[in-house]
Write a structure and sequence with these properties.
CATH architecture of one domain: 3-Layer(aba) Sandwich
CATH class of one domain: Alpha Beta
Protein name: Amino acid adenylation domain-containing protein
Oligomer: single chain
Organism: Amycolatopsis mediterranei (strain S699)
GO molecular function: phosphopantetheine binding
Number of helices: 13
GO biological process, one term: amino acid activation for nonribosomal peptide biosynthetic process
Structural class: alpha/beta
Shape: globular
Number of strands: 26
InterPro entries: AA_adenyl_dom, AMP-bd_C, AMP-bd_C_sf, AMP-binding_CS, AMP-dep_synth/lig_dom, ANL_N_sf
Radius of gyration: 23 Å
Helix content: 25-40%
CATH superfamily of one domain: ANL, N-terminal domain
Largest sheet: 5 strands, mixed
């Protein structure tokens, strides 16, 4: 059977594609949730009917367009059905990763103000909570008659914020439909594909892992909760289920390729997507040697532009640094601008700016920050540009090279980290007077966070273990520094600012 793929920009939302698959192949397995290499599963009919019941249940509670639904669930069959049910109800998905610190979850809950929150466990704060499964088993399995409104919000994902608190990025349905449709078409996903979902829910690539396989008639395999960063476990899953496509942060891909018998046990892999961190030539060359039957892609895209906006297919041989982030995907415009807002010629570094149908609406409850980053398009009235704050340049062949940040924002294991947020958490400790957090190369490759601290009058230098414990209650693991360096004072520039370039090497 030929498989249609959604190719027209914003043409069909994800849940409509799942409905089509349920009509075509109702008894085919859609989702498998792994537990110790055994699984429970849902067919396409079961998945669609469960999502329909959830949608009816939500609508009966008055939940509809622009209403937020918090999802505080671990990776499992309920998660997929709930996500699709929210979309069928026309509501807004707000992921609440159960493994985030309570303080961060409490902030997201208070900021997003969900109409209802689905949870299997305890939640911080006194906000509306409904128990998963609740009463929806008795609701109709028929598809609800809810109009699809592409301009309404589909999800809110929270990213690290420069003010010291995470900020919510509000993404409309049409932007998500555009991205998922392109992914299905570009990579040719179909019934033969097995896609692994392992990305933490608080990161937007988790959405393509969850939705693209069931949109295209393939099988979605859900990794065990908390095991998504274990390369040995992931290799077991690849071997057991015959995974054909997977998303990796480069730092995890490096460890995955180093596992014994990786070439043999991941032989079914044909598509590997890398993003969230810079991919270097050494890792790409290693990938080609271990998995010659797979193709490696380098993707780039901020949360504010719906998962990915550029793509580069990495060559199997002769790769050199820097590896390009590629060319704009259809429907997306990429500009590289100088400080005056003029386009930079090839070879000249400027700020990477994005336009097109994948832009987010803006930041939840932060009109000033939205206006600062989402600015009017100078060439097209009524359209906007998103200023990424990333440095880039065009190569003569038309590909883009990513050259780091204009500010201090960094990516750690695929998570966008504002060092200011980590610094704010550190200076909340009574023993810490000042804190500066930088990203530096780790001895084994990849970036790591290094915190430089000065002592307050409140107490002695805290050991690293105590600092990590203090931060663990506020920040996710990717935002906790790997190294802490205590200084008597910070070096200063001639104008009295902290001289970050003069901070000592942690090894010394």
């Amino acid at each position: 059977m030929s498989v249609d793929t959604p190719t027209r920009t914003g043409s069909r939302p994800a849940h409509r594609w799942v409905e089509q698959r349920a009509a075509e192949t109702p008894d085919a397995v859609a989702v498998l949730a792994d537990t110790d290499l055994t699984s429970v599963s849902l067919t396409y009919r079961e998945l669609d009917e469960s999502a329909n019941r959830i949608a009816h249940w939500l609508r009966a509670r008055g939940v509809g367009a622009e209403d937020r639904v918090g999802v505080h669930l671990d990776r499992g069959l309920d998660l997929v059905a709930v996500l699709l049910g929210i979309f069928k109800a026309g509501a807004v998905y707000v992921p609440l990763d159960p493994h985030l610190p309570a303080a961060r979850l409490a902030h997201v809950l208070a900021d997003s103000a969900p109409s209802v929150t689905l949870t299997e466990g305890d939640l911080p704060g006194a906000l509306p909570v409904e128990t998963v499964r609740a009463e929806w088993a008795s609701f109709p399995a028929t598809r609800p008659e809810v109009p699809y409104l592409g301009a309404t919000a589909a999800y809110v994902v929270y990213t690290s914020g420069s003010t010291g608190t995470p900020k919510g990025v509000v993404v409309p349905y049409e932007a998500l439909a555009t991205q998922l449709g392109w992914l299905c078409a570009r990579f040719g996903f179909g019934p033969a594909d097995v896609v692994l979902h392992k990305t933490p829910l608080a990161s937007d690539p988790s959405l393509w892992e969850l939705l693209v396989p069931v949109m295209s008639g393939g099988r979605l395999v859900l990794a065990e909760p908390l095991n998504h960063g274990d390369p040995a476990y992931l290799l077991d899953v690849h071997d057991h289920y015959g995974v054909t496509a997977c998303d990796f942060f480069p730092s995890l891909l490096r460890h995955f390729l180093a596992e014994p018998r990786a070439a043999e046990r991941a032989a079914a892999l044909r598509t590997v997507i890398c993003g969230g961190e810079e991919l270097n030539a050494e890792l790409a060359t290693r990938f080609a040697a271990v998995l010659p039957g797979a193709t490696l892609y380098n993707l780039y895209g901020p949360t504010e532009a719906t998962i990915a906006v550029t793509l580069h297919q990495v060559a199997a041989a002769g790769v050199t640094d820097p590896i390009p982030i590629g060319s704009p995907i259809p429907g997306t415009e990429i500009l590289v601008l100088d400080p005056a807002g003029a386009p930079c010629p090839a070879g000249v570094t400027g700020e990477l700016v994005i336009a097109g149908g994948q832009l987010a609406r803006g930041y939840q409850g932060r009109p000033a920050q939205t206006a600062e980053r989402f600015v009017p398009h100078p060439g097209r009235a009524g359209e906007r540009l998103y200023r990424t704050g990333d440095r880039a340049r065009w190569r003569p062949d038309g590909a883009l090279e990513f050259l780091g940040r204009l500010d201090h924002q960094v990516k750690i294991r695929g998570h966008r980290v504002e060092p200011a947020e980590v610094e704010a958490a550190l200076t909340a400790c009574p023993e810490v007077a000042q804190a500066v957090v930088l990203a530096q190369a780790a001895p084994g490759g990849g970036p790591r966070l290094v915190a430089y601290l000065t002592r307050s009058a409140a107490g002695p230098e805290l050991p690293a273990a105590a600092l990590r414990r203090a931060l663990a209650g506020q920040l996710p693991p990717a935002m906790i520094p790997a190294v802490f360096v205590w200084l008597d004072r910070f070096p200063l520039t001639a104008v009295g600012k902290i001289d970050r370039a003069a901070l000592p090497d942690p090894a010394g």
